[in-house]
Amino acid sequence: MARRETAARRSAEAAFQVASSEGALNRWQADLAVLSEALAIAVQVAAALAAAHQAGIVHRDIKPENVMLRPDGYVKVLDVGIAKLTQRPDGSPDSDQITRTLSQTSDGAIVGTVPYMSPEQARGAAVDARSDIWSLGCLLYEMLAGRSPFAGPTTSDVLVAVPLFLFMGYL
User: Fold this and answer.
1) What's the pLDDT tens digit per position in 113-171?
2) Catalytic residue among 61, 90, 94, 157
3) Is 79 a catalytic residue?
4) Is 117 in contact with 150 (CB distance < 8 Å)?
């Protein structure tokens, strides 16, 4: 009788291992699908940002709520309400300079969504295309990890997490 129980137990354990490895394979394939979709979205956001940056525009608020995915898989980057025209790429004079000057935010103003802000944006310093690239990295991290790279119970905790991350040498 002990032999039967042992054989049955081994069969059950073997079946469990097979089922577990099939589950792991399915999980791995699902993870690859998530990775593939996240990268496809990130590439489209990066292309939209590249076009904006080429025109001298910094979005300053790249976050999940501002990236919409159409049913056909096409990505739209929305809400340019706090975008900043940094400078004409060709450096030529611009007849809209007066309007642009009036619409710029003042030095030291902190605008954007804290968990996605680059360190310079969080300090209220001058921003450029690299700020949007930082935010895109935070967005990609969140798509893959399922959580923001910088989180905390308060806005202040999140603001402190970024320099701590840099200080600890993760970049």
Assistant:
1) 888 988 888 888 888 999 999 999 999 999 999 988 888 899 888 887 776 666 555 54
2) 61
3) no
4) no
